Amino acid sequence: MGRCFSVSHSESLGFYVHIPFCKSRCSYCDFVSYTDFSDMEIYFNCLNKEIEMWSRLLGIRKIDTVYIGGGTPSDVPTVCLSKILSCIERSFCLIDPEITIEVNPDFSGFADLKNLGVNRLSMGLQAADDVVLKAVRRRHSVFDFQRAYERASACFDNVNVDFIVGLPYESHETIVKDLEIIERYRPKHVSVYILEVHKEKEMNLKIDPDRTAIHHEILVSELEKLGYERYEISNFSLPGYRCKHNLKYWNNDDYIGVGVSSGGHIESKRYVNVSELQRYLELIEANEFAFEFFHHNDSFEELRETLFMSLRLCEGVKIEKLKEIVPKINLNELVAMFPDQLVLERDRLRMTEAGMDFSCSLLSEIIDKDTLLRVTGGE
Predict the structure, then answer these.
(1) pLDDT, tens only, 28-46
(2) What is the pTM of this model?
(3) Which of 49, 128, 224, 275 is the Cys-Cys partner for 181 at CB 3.0 to 4.6 Å?
(4) What does the DSSP assignment read for 280-301?
(5) Whose CA is closest to 182, among 237, 137, 111?
(6) Domain 8-248 has CATH 3.20.20.70
(7) Do the Cβ atoms of 121 and 266 come closer than 8 Å?
(8) What pairing do the DSSP bridges indicate for beta strands 342-345 and 348-351?
């Protein structure tokens, strides 16, 4: 597998670690997570081993962002997280890194996380109403969140709070409560996601698209009035607090992902690890990478990925970057195909506000094979 990658030291990498353990599962959750912690110790041993495998393959690359997600990383002992961060530090060259960890609002060990070098938290409130929280099996209350946030803010300046729009029992009044929490605590970063219902959950969770759209529009509008910058479809920050790690995803930059179901993108290579825990453990213990999917993108595929990810950003994508991938791309023709949704502005291609409102369907149309063949001349 080592021959699949060329070693480049031109840019710093991001690093994602997936912790699949969680004390409970919310009804909307579609991430790979397990409430059974019996394999936790062996899993963390395998994470360390996978990190070392990547270091041997790529060399001592620079890392400037680390993101620990899940699952619920705050549900595992802090000593496990300490070993992972120490292994990354030994195996790579950390350059003033942004280190983010996801925490549940029933967590209290914030000082311990700070002592590990963590400097950014992402806290999943989801809704500021106990009836809504109970309906989707969140195990915390609004009071729990308030207590946790106040403790967290004593240790951390940079905290993100997650919200989901479209949950059961949501109303105009609950959206107002969300905004009151934001105005009261002024987190540096806010993420607002629209609930996605997958087939196996449709019997329990149903979305009212019209109501959800109205509620989402209210949140977006009011967040901007509160001084938050919408820099990506679902993400808002106060000036200077954009999430550096997630910007790597949206710019289609390079990052390593370790752990079950995690993925990575390195020099046009795209991979995703297996999503079954036992299979992951077997492969890593056998000194094999745990790839379920591995593909070397050609220029056309890299263009599709870059457009799909980067156009999520309100600033869009640099024209120079697109032309580096496919020099003959005709961006004027692409804009002409979507005149109300796309615009060329100075050195960037971006979505208009109307485009952002219908981003899911628009992005699918933009990266459609026939569309891209037309604007690249079949290249």
Answers:
(1) 767 677 788 899 999 999 9
(2) 0.93
(3) 128
(4) HHHHHHTT---EEEEEE--HHH
(5) 237
(6) yes
(7) no
(8) antiparallel
